[in-house]
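Quick start: what a row looks like.
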Amino acid sequence: MMKRICFITGSRAEYGLLHALMKNVEAEPDFELQIIATGAHFSPGLGRTYLEIEADGFAIDEKVDIPLPKTSAAMLTYVANAVDQTGHALQRLQPDLVIVLGDRYEIFAAASAACLLKIPLAHIHGGELTEGAIDDVFRHCVTKMSHLHFVSADEYRRRVIQLGENPDSVYNVGALAIDNIKNMPLLAKQDLENDLNLAFDRQVLLVTFHPETLSDISVSEQCQIMLDALDTFKDVIMIFTKANADQGGDVVNHMLETYAAKRPADRKVFASLGCLRYLSFLQYVDGVVGNSSSGIIEVPSFHIGTVNVGDRQKGRIRADSVVDCPFDKDRICQSIQKILSPAFKDGIKTMANPYGDGSTGGRILDVLKTSHFKNLTLKSFFDCKFDNKEEVWK
């Protein structure tokens, strides 16, 4: 019997991770792929990335296009509308399983709709921590609404079980991002230079900065501190990708555009590089700066350094290539100098990425093939047993 599997995607970054898995599901004769696009995919300022989904050959079954919120109060209305409209989309599609990834508020809304409609839910990247962002709360909420859990490390598996999820439903499969790096044919340097209209004739930094939504420092001050530090590296080419749809993201994007406009020859801002160009670019850059999860998860596979600014990603497992620093100009400068140094680069040449070996999609597909989705909706809270303060579960 054909199983209808519905992916709900709300951002460029998360779609880039899901893309290959969606292709694999589509190719399975016993699966019917369904897609709901929502969130930032419809934002003109963020590149209308739903067009990338369609350009990849996918048919979007339902488009939940709601204007993105710019304040906390507006987020209340957004989430309420997203639950309602995504719920109606799910009622029309009648999927046997919904798959979501990550921790954003639009994914929280989608998971809530599936939960209320008693549709089994699979969650990718649960159990992680991002203590500087409100997303941390949304991730754990989605975990509790989900029935299948695909986590990226053993530490995250233990945390999902600690939240009361049965160990038999929690699979350490690694991170989908590593699959893309392993399997996607990346662009040659000359092709990428032509595509971006930029010659990589000296050191290059990739910069991605998102608002730290739980910080006491204003978003504009966060961004300005980082830009002041970057401005001391006059001879370095810098490529900026715009912030996501978090509150304050528009402030960051305006500041990036204003900054780059002063040096258009070697400072460029992109709403979205897309998965292929982004990963291809990582082959040729000398380092990454900002606070994106990509700097923690994908970048170590390229054996280049990441300067992770602030606490947005606090709590994630890190490779040795990640250098953490606070919102302080001098500390950021020191950290950038460190990752650009020959000694640091030599030290991470043989480093292993803790987020898997590039076989994540296959592991997830194997679980989907053998799961009986109708048996998932009723679940019991799994109580961990404690013995001398050590967690023990069967």
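That is the whole record. The mean pLDDT is 93. Residues 3-174+358-392 form a domain with the Rossmann fold fold (CATH 3.40.50.2000).
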